[in-house]
Amino acid sequence: GGGGGGAVSLPARTISLPEPPSDSISCLSFSTAEPLLACASWDGTVRAWSVPNGGTPQHVLTYRHSAPALCACWEGRDAAAAAVSGGGDNAVRRVALGKPELTEVGAHQAPVSCVATDEAMPHMVFSGSWDRTVAV
Q: What is the reported pLDDT for 123?
């Protein structure tokens, strides 16, 4: 009698990331194109690391929201890769890895709870908010 519905149990593995956030993590997002991990945190930061398979993680980016960072995702590939995030400050922000200049790409009337991008629609950022709206 198995139970478990065919689920595979993998051993837990914890890795230490350099320069971790100082408060709770609200969102993690891996890039589909590069070994990059983005992290949104209640300390207001969005951080990113290069996480090569079997290699040592390297911190590559940190930027801030003026309230907790609630969500993050990736846009683009290679040197054009950018972290996109939403926060409790109602802002949607974007920072490219190769050119770490913070850009506000959208705003809502309430905290931004989710962000998404699609490779088929370059430079389009979708955001959802506690204000019950989706913005492009």
A: 81
How far is 104 from 25, CA to CA, in rounded Å?
Answer: 22
Q: What is the CATH number of domain 17-135?
A: 2.130.10.10
CA 97 to each of CA 34, 72, 101: distance values in angstroms, whole numbers, following the listed order: 12, 14, 9
CA distance 44 to 28: 14
Residue whose structure tokens are 């400050």:
89
CA atoms of 91 and 93, how far apart (whole Å): 6
Domain boundaries, given as residue ranges, for the chain: 17-135
| DSSP per-residue letters across 72-93 | EEEESSGGG-EEEEEETTSEEE
Tell me the pLDDT of the chain averaged across its residues.
Answer: 90
pTM for the model stands at: 0.86
